[in-house]
Design goal:
This protein is α/β, with parallel strands linked by helices. The chain is built from eleven helices and 14 strands. Strands 6-7-8-3-9-10 form a six-stranded mixed sheet, with helices on both faces. Helix 6 links the parallel strand 7 and strand 8. The structure holds adenosine-5'-triphosphate (ATP) and magnesium ion (MG).
C-alpha cells in the first residue's frame, strides 16, 4: 500500500499565548477528497498554511507527499498546489497573464505552459477569453481559473482553502465536479468549506473547533457512529415556543432549528411522537407534521458541537 498523501501528527500553532491549532493529528489517503470543516477562526487556514510550508509549526510534525514540511519544504512545495482563501489571482491582469504568471512560479517549460494553458482555459470555460481582464470575470469563472492555476503544474496534492465562498450554487456544483475529476485522476485534494452539503462529496472529513479536532471519518460513518438516536423533523406553528418546551423534557436528547422546522433527537420514536403531539395540544396549536429523517452532516455536527459545549460546561 502506498504511503498516505498527508500525515499530520500532534500539529500545534500558537500565536503568542493563543493556540490557533491545538495538537491535531490526521491522515489523508492518496487520491482522497478530504474535507476540512470548522467555524470561522477554527484554525483551518492556519493548518493549511503549515502544511504548505508557509507558516512554521510551534510543535508536532506533518508529512506531505512523504516529506517532512519542516525539514524538506522545497520537496513539499514541488508536489503541492495551493488556492488561498481569497482567490490568488491578480485582478489587474488578463486571464492568460495570470496563467503565465503561475506557470513561471511553478517553473513550467514553454511547451508545457502552452499545453496547460489550453487545458486551464477549457476547464475554466474560458476558451477564447485569454485577453479578458480577470477583474471582470463572474465569480464562478474566477474560481475555476484560480483552481486551474493552482493545478497548472499537475501537483500530487492540492490545498483549496474555502474555494466556494461567495460563489452561486450552480457554480459551486460544477466546481465540485471538477474536484471529482481531479481526484479520479489521482490528485489528492484537501478542501476547507463552511457548506455541509459540500462535505457530503468528500471521502473523508474532519471537524475542528477552536483549534481542536472533534471528529473525523467518512460522512456515512460519522452519521452511523454519532447519531445513535432517531431524529424527528417537526413542523410546529411556533417553532421557538415548541423548542423551548421540548428542551425541558427528558425524552428529547437534542433539538435544533432548521428554518421553520425543528430536528428533535429522541430516545424513542413512538414516545417522541406522542410527546410532541401532547405538547402541541398544550401549546394550543394543531398537530404538527412529524417525520423521521435520515440525519444529514449538519445534524451530526450540531450534535458534536452540542456535546463538546456541554462537556465544557461539565468540566468547569
Ligand atoms: N498571524 C496571526 N496572528 C495572530 N492570530 C492569528 C494569526 N493568524 C490566525 N490567527 C488566529 O488564529 C485563529 C484561527 O484562524 P484561521 O484563519 O486558521 O481560522 P479559519 O478556520 O481558517 O477561519 P475562517 O473560516 O474564518 O477562514 C483565529 O482566531 C485567528 O484570529
Ligand atoms: Mg480560513
Amino acid at each position: 500500500m502506498s504511503s498516505p498523501a498527508i500525515e499530520v501528527t500532534n500539529l500545534t500553532r500558537k500565536f503568542g499565548d493563543f493556540t490557533a491549532v491545538n495538537n491535531i493529528s490526521f491522515t489523508v489517503a492518496r487520491g482522497d477528497v478530504f474535507g476540512f470543516l470548522g467555524a470561522n477562526g477554527a484554525g483551518k487556514s492556519t493548518t493549511i498554511r503549515m502544511l504548505c510550508g508557509l507558516l512554521p509549526a510551534t510543535s508536532g510534525s506533518a508529512l506531505v507527499g512523504g516529506f517532512d514540511v519542516t525539514l524538506r519544504p522545497d520537496d513539499v512545495k514541488a508536489r503541492i498546489g495551493y488556492m488561498s482563501q481569497r482567490f490568488s489571482l491578480y485582478d489587474d491582469m488578463t486571464v492568460a497573464q495570470n496563467i503565465r504568471f503561475f506557470g513561471g512560479v511553478y517553473g513550467l517549460t514553454r511547451e508545457a505552459l502552452d499545453e496547460r494553458m489550453a487545458w486551464v482555459m477549457t476547464m475554466a470555460g474560458l476558451s477564447g477569453r485569454g485577453d479578458t481582464m480577470t477583474r471582470t470575470l463572474a465569480g464562478g469563472f474566477k474560481q475555476r481559473l484560480a483552481l486551474g492555476c493552482a493545478v497548472l503544474h499537475q501537483p500530487e496534492i492540492v490545498f483549496l482553502d474555502e474555494p466556494t465562498g461567495g460563489v452561486d450554487p450552480i457554480s459551486r456544483r460544477s466546481f465540485w465536479e471538477l474536484i471529482g475529476e481531479l481526484s479520479a485522476g489521482g490528485t489528492t485534494i484537501l478542501v476547507t468549506t463552511h457548506f455541509l452539503d459540500e462535505a457530503e462529496y468528500c471521502n473523508d472529513i474532519i471537524l475542528i473547533e477552536a483549534g481542536q479536532l472533534i471528529a473525523g471519518g467518512s460522512p456515512g460513518r460519522l452519521k452511523e457512529e454519532q447519531i445513535r438516536f432517531p431524529i424527528l423533523e417537526v413542523s410546529p406553528q411556533d417553532p421557538l415556543a415548541m423548542m423551548e418546551e421540548i428542551r425541558k423534557s427528558d425524552w428529547a436528547v437534542e433539538t435544533s432549528v432548521f428554518g421553520t422546522t425543528l430536528h428533535v433527537m429522541v430516545t424513542d420514536e413512538e414516545k417522541g411522537r406522542k410527546e410532541i403531539d401532547s405538547l402541541s395540544r398544550r401549546l394550543g396549536s394543531g398537530a404538527p407534521g412529524v417525520h423521521r429523517i435520515i440525519p444529514s452532516l449538519e445534524d451530526v455536527f450540531l450534535h458534536l458541537l452540542e456535546q463538546k459545549r456541554s462537556g465544557r460546561k461539565g468540566a468547569v
